[in-house]
C-alpha cells in the first residue's frame, strides 16, 4: 500500500497556519510517550514530544558529549535508528512538523514515518501492523520540515519514526484531530464535552498573543502561565476577547469550570459563556448564540465552578467563552451529558 498523498509546504504558508490550529497528537501534555527505540546515546527520544521549542546551550555537555534538546543517536549506524511513539489520543493526522532545530552537523539526513492502530500491548509485543504514511524524505540541518496531507489519514494510535542512518531530530509535531475511542470522564463520571481527549478543540479566537486557546482543553491544570490562553492587553474601552470551542461531544451542558491557575495579575475580571448549534467547524457570522453563563467575576489562581443557565434540552455543538476586557485563563471545562 502506498503512503497517502502529501506535500511539503513552507513555514509561512496558510497550510502551516491551518496545521497549527489542529491538535498536536504527540504532545507531552496529552501524555504521549516513547514505547521503544533503537538508541538514544546522546539525547533522549522523549525530547521529541516536548511542547516547548528546542533550545541550544553552547556550553552544556554531558558525560556522553554535547547536550542536545532532541533525540540524537550515536554515529556510524550500519542500518538505521527508530523510535516508536504512543500518541496521547487516537486520531486522524493532517500533517507533520519534523524539526531539526540546532542539529547542524549531526541532524538525521533522511526520515520516514509509519503508523499503526493498535493497543500498547500489541505494539510492545511486536504484533502491531505499521503502515508507511511518510516515505523517506530528506532533512535539512536546523530546519522545520512541514508536510500536509491532501486528506486526513486513517485513525492511528502509534507512530514509528525512522532515522536514516542516525543523527538528531529536535521535535516531532503530529497535527491532527482526536477521534475518541471511548468517552473520557472523570473519576466521578463527569464528562467534559470540550475536553481534547473527547475530540474538543479551539476553532477561532479574537487574539492569542501570548498563548493559544487550544491549551484551554488540555488535561490537568498545567505547569506554568504559558500553557493557558492569554491575550494582549487592551487599551480600547468596551473591549473583550473571545474563543470559540467546538465540543468533541455535542451535548446538554450542566456546569462549567473556569480555572485561572497561575494567572494572578492578568486574569479576566469578568467572563461569559454562550452556546450554539452548527454543522460547521466555525459557526457562521449570523449564528444564534444562547447565553449559558451570565457575566461572572473571576479571581486570581482559582478554580471557579458555575451552573449553566439556558435551555437544558438543546444539544449544543459549540461554546463561546468571552473575557472582559482581556487576560488569561488556564482551563475551561464544559461538563454535561453527551447527546449520543
- Structural class by helix and strand composition: mainly beta
For the largest beta-sheet, the strand count, sense and barrel status come to: 9 strands, antiparallel
Rounded mean pLDDT is 96
**Order of SSEs, N→C?**
EHEEEEEEEHEEEEEEEEEEEEEEE
The tally of strands reads: 23
Note the beta-strand portion. Answer: 35-45%
Number of helices: 2
Range of helix content: under 10%
Terminal CA distance: 35 Å
Give a written overview of the molecule.
- With 340 residues, the protein is mostly beta strands.
- It has helices at 14-19, 120-124; strands spanning 6-9, 23-24, 33-37, 61-62, 65-66, 71-72, 81-99, 110-116, 131-138, 144-149, 155-164, 168-169, 171-178, 191-192, 201-205, 229-230, 241-259, 270-276, 290-297, 303-307, 316-324, 328-329, 331-338.
- Strands 1, 2, 3, 7, 8, 9, 10, 11 and 13 form a nine-stranded antiparallel beta sheet that branches.
- The longest helix has 6 residues, at 14-19.
Secondary structure: elements and pairs:
Blueprint: E1 6-9, H1 14-19, E2 23-24, E3 33-37, E4 61-62, E5 65-66, E6 71-72, E7 81-99, E8 110-116, H2 120-124, E9 131-138, E10 144-149, E11 155-164, E12 168-169, E13 171-178, E14 191-192, E15 201-205, E16 229-230, E17 241-259, E18 270-276, E19 290-297, E20 303-307, E21 316-324, E22 328-329, E23 331-338
Antiparallel strand pairs: 1-10, 2-13, 3-7, 4-5, 6-12, 7-10, 7-11, 7-13, 8-9, 8-11, 14-23, 15-17, 16-22, 17-20, 17-21, 17-23, 18-19, 18-21
